[in-house]
Amino acid sequence: MRERFRSWDRQRKILALILLVTFLRGTIYASITPLWQAPDEPFHYEYVGELGRKFGAGEEHTSTETEILISMQRWDFWRYQNQLTPESTPWGFSDVPFFSTIRYLDRAPLYYYLCLPLYFPVSNSATDLRVYTLRLANVFWGVLIVFMSYLIARGVFPRDEVVSLGTPIFVSFLPMHTTLMASINSDNLVNLLFCLFLYLAIKILRKGASWTSVGVLVLVMILSFATKRTAIAQLPFALLIPGFLLFRRKSPSLKAWLRRVGLTSLWFLALAALFIPASNLMEKVLKTQVNTSELCLRFWNFLHSPKPLGRLVFNCGVMFRSFWGHFGWMSIPLSSNYYRIMLVVTLASIVGLFIWLSRLAAKRESIARWQELSLLFLFLSLSLVALIAIFRCTIYEYVPLQGRYIFPTIAVAGLFFVLGLRSLIQMGGDSFRGRVFLFVLTAGLALFDLACLFGCLVPRFYCV
Questions:
Q1: Structural domain boundaries of the chain?
Q2: Are 268 and 240 in contact (CB under 8 A)?
Q3: Which of 1, 302, 408, 450 could form a disulfide with 194 if both were Cys (CB 3.0 to 4.6 A apart)?
Q4: What is the pLDDT of residues 166-180, one digit of tens each?
């Protein structure tokens, strides 16, 4: 008991250090990134600015759109996009290439209202100060995402220090996640709420459902949807939980096991039968592009397009690269050598996961039933989010594919990444080798982060 207390006390201190480093790194990224050089930042800021004007904050003689365009002109926005800087300030976003069809003023409002308490004190200050202030709020949400990743990993592996601490280390030092959390973007809040949703789900799988746990889970889903409409993707994950709960305890007999399989199958068939009317309802009420007939037509056209498999593989490659590092408006890639290194490390982690699963199958290692269900649930969540992102961008093709689209499950990606690498050297969760592994993991990710920051971003922003 004393040893476990020491371990927990050590974890708390290390976690506090991780969170502090996350905040400092986020502040650095927020400071060195020129204004508007983060995806969609002008449109997120516009929403906050227009809300501020609505409630009497800020100047009235000019619109937020004009304020942003003047600032973009001053910050030489077009040069970073390899475009000619216009001689005069554009009249509106419609005059800016690749901005003409993008406006966020009709989006779910929760994120923007939560930004207002920080916006009001600086509403009469310069635009730069307003943007940096709102970026710091997003850094804070990013720190909470790292903390939630620790809770998720510890929730699945409560006695494994390597996985519990390695997961937040991974999330903390991932350059693309830091870039996102250091910008004004509603993804930061919805990613935090998605992590909270996953944590509550595995807690239910461990301890069983109660009115309180289900109520909190539903509340998180409502808040997520009020932050971003695409958070409706949480609904199918929530509907998976009742089927998983049927298998929470080991079946005493073949008959009972078959009964569970039958009930779960009926549940999933009922969900499948509701898919078409539910998707049509979402199209009308939520204004999402999920029309069933159009979806089937686009999928059919994709299957009969030239080299559909090649296009799919290409998009997966784009997602992989932009998960590790493809900055700005997808205009600042890393050197190809970095992608090769991260591909080798990722494949090594996948091999480690298969080794770990083989040890479980051979009974050389064992975990509790609720852990098996939690890991399966998390794996399905990560897989479905990735598939939805790839499908959304490959079939609909109305947005470019980016690795940040799977950041709602970044804690899950970090958990499996660390678990796979740890399994390669077959060590315990609280051994000396485990601490060495955490040090090597931290050092490797920190070096990669420094290479991205000073070998890619700083030269691009300040030396070109």
A1: 2-32+126-462
A2: no
A3: 408
A4: 999 999 999 999 999
